[in-house]
Amino acid sequence: MISQNRNRAIFLDRDGVINVEVGYLSNPNDFKIIEGSIEALKILNKKGFLLIVVTNQAGIARGYYTEVDLKNIHNKMKSVLKQHEVTLTDIFYCPHHPEFTGSCNCRKPNPGMILESKKKYNIDLDNSYMVGDTLNDIQTGLAAN
Asked: Is 15 designated active site?
């Protein structure tokens, strides 16, 4: 049973789920939506789910791009989705990589980003889902529950 004051969420990986995977996306002009993803996100919005992106961004730790570059990409993504009446609740990202910055709790498959969003948005994890394109994404969802 869903508590009346707890939210359901869909946690979404970004690359390969919302946008075409290009490997260390650093330029907003290279951001391309995966065909069908907008329609799926609209359905989930209409069903009352919060849409929360949880994405590893090791390119920051590796020096391939900056957090400002990432913010520009995320602004482009939010703008494109908003044009199609899709509302993202939030975007959580991990800028770390164990070889460059040491271990952390936020890098998937660790559940840190999901657990942080649970607190911020009062999310009922038993009625929420993780959507991704890798084993790490699946492991993240399992670790959070």
From this structure: yes
